[in-house]
Amino acid sequence: MAVFHMILGWTAQALMFVLFLLFLAFLGYCLYLKHLHMKYDHIPGPPRNSVTFVFCFLSHTLCFSVHSFLGGIVHDKFLEWSETYGPVCRINFLHFVMVFVSCPEATKEILMSSKYPKDAFLHKRLFNLFGQRFLGNGLVTAKDHELWYKQRRIMDPKYNNLYLRGLMGTFNERAEKLMTSLSDLAEQKKEANMLQLVNSVTLDVIAKVAFGVDLDLLNNSSTFPRAIEMCLKGMVHNLRDTFFALNPKNRPFVNEVRESCRLLRTTGAKWIQDRKTAMQNGDEVPKDILTQIIKSAGKEESMTQEDEDLMLDNFVTFFIAGQETTANQLAFCIMELARHPDILEKVTKEVDDVIGMKQEISYDDLGQLIYLSQVLKETLRIYPTAPGTSRELRQDIVVDGIHVPAGAIGIFSSYTCGRMDKFFKDPLKFDPDRFHPDAPKPYYCYYPFALGPRSCLGQNFAQMEAKVVMAKLLQRFDFTLVPGQSYDLLDTGTLRPKSGVVCSVRYRDHKK
User: Fold this and answer.
1) Residue stretches of the annotated binding site
2) What is the DSSP letter of 356?
3) Which residues are annotated as a binding site for heme?
4) What band does 341 get if pLDDT is binned at 50, 70 and 90?
């Protein structure tokens, strides 16, 4: 009995000691938060909710969670705060201090420089999704400049003009399959969910041109679109709700996200291995992005597990980024043209003048579709499908006269800047003439593909693909929006039309 009491006493003492250590750790964390508040509270920003200690501890985390839960777009909250507090706005997220920047001069200084890397918070949240490796150290997320530069150097040759010209055949071929699907719907007088259709096309294109694989999603069912959608939804929750995975109610969703990540990466591993085997056997292989990655990696002394993981990281990055954003841009473009008959008529006339009735669109034709380019740019102004980016501010910087100490995370949103009246008059009006060749260029307040050395590698690829698809659609079909659908946005990391842009399609009457 005495031994029992002795053990019980030791256990109680150990428990008290652990609780004391936890209390000290928590107290230290609270003091660290207080230090951060004192360091950055001179920067304008929304007040932290101080009703209870817990709300103060969470800072603006709860605000983001509630806003997202109610179906809001977090960038609308940034817009509201920017208009209230000015071109630099402080946001507290647990122990992270973020400054939202809408000052063009600071945007230029930070995004155009390699001195400001991708921030550690974003890298950590996108490296894994709920414990399953997702984007890892791929081109979008790589934080280390040398690692990023090595990968960018490998990829750059595959996006020069000569290479892009060679893709016109694939763009035309896949767009023709979409036209066939729309013809079937027109003949059957069925409604067309344009987002689903263009999503299939852009996924087909990236699979073919980057990895040499024919998915033919317009004619075959596949788990890929669902897997990509789940990964993107999981990414949003992982970024904006620190405690999401801890809620038992979210367990089925979390498991599906993990399984989706595994599906993309195991598929990528198989495609990479198949291509390596073909190359080792001396077989003829496509001169695509996958071959370039493997050849360039093979020039290094030897392939390590890290090299293999990096290839998979970039497989997932290209597979998602190479189709998701372009598909959403196309859907938004179709939606806005259907809502603006005068603009639709003008861009259709340009397509008729440049393309006529020919089926094969050439690279030179794209250069003559000037007004269509304006329409696509204006679409990205109001609906930048990849709406924001971030950088780690490793040194002190002055933004619009306000001193921002080193250590904060800089947040930049093309969505917010594109909807601010001080940059664009009547910003919610869809007006492609803002991007007329003679119009003044927006000064570092329009960056749907980011800016500087970390800007999107595939932006020319994406806009060429979008032009081919839109030109063929305008050439052959009239489309009208089905009444009753919402024009709201859905935030899945990228922005997409919530209702999918459901249209009635019919053949154009060229006799008119």
Assistant:
1) 456
2) T
3) 456
4) very high
